[in-house]
C-alpha cells in the first residue's frame, strides 16, 4: 500500500469520525461516552472490511482446502499461546501458565509444529490472554470504550495494552519482524490477517443476521468478554457472541416416550 492510499484512508477515517461526533447521542452508555466518535470509526471499519478484508477472507476459504486452513490457523494459535502464557505468568495465574505452556509443548511436538491441535482434542482448552488483560488484573481500570481504526473494539486500557502486545510479539520470541526475508515476512503478516478475518466470518454473519444495532451488539459482547478475561472466567477463543441458533428447538419440551407395550392376554 503506497503513501497516497494510506493518506486517503486516514482522511476518510478522520472525516467519518468528525461527522459522527457532530451527531453524538443524547444519552450515551456510561461505558461509552465517546459513542458519536466511536460510531464513525465503526462505520469506517465496516466499510473497509466489506470492501477489502471480508471478500479476501471469503475467497481464501473458498480456494483453500479446510485441512490447510485448519493447519495454518492452528500454527498461528500455537505461537500465540507463548504470549498468552507469558501474560498468565505476569498475572500470577500459575495454573493457567502451566496449562498454556503444556498446550504449546504438546501441540508443537505431537501436533507437528502446531498444525494439529491435539491438546484441545484431549481436553486442554486454549486460554486466550494479552497485555490488556494483564493491566486489568494489575488493577488498571478499563476506561471508556474505544473503537480503533482497523483494530476495532477496544478500551483505553486495551488500547495501551496493544503497545505491550506489539512489543512482546514483535521483538520477543515470536516476532515475525525478526525474519530477514522481506517477502516471506510480509507474506506471513498478510496470511495472519487473512486467517484472523476468515476465523471471524461466522461471527460477523451472526451479527448481521440478528443484531438490530450491530454497533451496540459488538460493544456489549466485547466488554462482557474482556471483563470475564480479567476476572479469570472461561471465555471462547475466537468470540463470545451469543448464540441464537436453534433457540426454538432448545425451548421445545421433549416428546413423551411411548408407553411400553403390554403383554398379550392368554
TrEMBL record:
Composition bias, Pro residues: 256-266
UniProt-listed InterPro entries: MlaA (IPR007428)
Keyword set, alphabetical order: Lipoprotein, Signal
Signal peptide region: 1-20
Domain of life: Bacteria
Transmembrane segments: none
A GO cellular component entry from the record: membrane
Record keyword Lipoprotein present: yes
Sequence segments annotated as region (Disordered): 237-266
Example GO BP: intermembrane phospholipid transfer
Pfam families: MlaA
Stated family: Belongs to the MlaA family.
Protein name: Putative phospholipid-binding lipoprotein MlaA
Taxonomic classification: Bacteria, Pseudomonadati, Pseudomonadota, Betaproteobacteria, Burkholderiales
Amino acid at each position: 500500500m503506497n503513501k497516497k492510499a494510506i493518506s486517503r484512508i486516514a482522511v476518510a477515517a478522520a472525516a467519518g469520525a468528525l461527522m459522527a461526533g457532530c451527531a453524538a447521542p443524547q444519552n450515551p452508555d456510561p461505558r461509552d461516552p465517546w459513542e458519536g466518535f466511536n460510531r464513525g470509526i465503526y462505520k469506517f471499519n465496516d466499510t473497509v472490511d466489506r470492501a477489502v478484508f471480508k471478500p479476501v477472507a471469503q475467497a481464501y476459504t473458498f480456494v483453500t482446502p479446510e485441512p490447510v486452513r485448519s493447519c495454518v490457523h492452528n500454527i498461528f494459535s500455537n505461537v500465540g499461546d507463548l504470549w498468552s502464557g507469558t501474560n498468565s505468568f505476569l498475572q500470577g495465574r500459575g495454573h493457567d501458565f502451566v496449562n498454556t505452556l503444556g498446550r504449546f509443548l504438546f501441540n508443537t511436538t505431537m501436533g507437528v509444529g502446531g498444525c494439529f491441535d491435539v491438546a484441545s482434542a484431549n481436553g486442554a482448552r486454549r486460554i486466550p490472554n494479552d497485555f490488556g488483560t494483564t493491566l486489568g488484573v494489575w488493577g488498571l481500570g478499563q476506561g471508556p470504550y474505544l473503537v480503533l481504526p482497523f483494530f476495532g473494539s477496544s478500551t483505553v486500557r486495551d488500547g495501551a495494552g496493544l503497545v505491550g502486545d506489539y512489543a512482546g510479539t514483535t521483538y520477543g520470541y515470536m516476532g515475525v519482524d525478526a525474519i530477514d526475508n522481506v517477502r516471506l515476512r510480509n507474506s506471513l503478516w498478510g496470511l495472519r490477517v487473512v486467517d484472523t478475518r476468515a476465523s471471524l466470518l461466522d461471527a460477523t454473519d451472526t451479527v448481521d443476521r440478528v443484531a438490530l444495532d450491530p454497533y451496540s451488539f459488538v460493544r456489549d459482547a466485547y466488554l462482557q468478554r474482556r471483563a470475564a478475561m480479567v476476572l479469570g472466567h472461561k471465555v471462547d477463543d475466537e468470540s463470545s457472541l451469543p448464540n441464537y441458533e436453534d433457540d426454538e428447538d432448545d425451548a421445545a419440551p421433549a416428546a413423551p416416550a411411548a408407553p411400553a407395550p403390554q403383554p398379550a392376554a392368554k
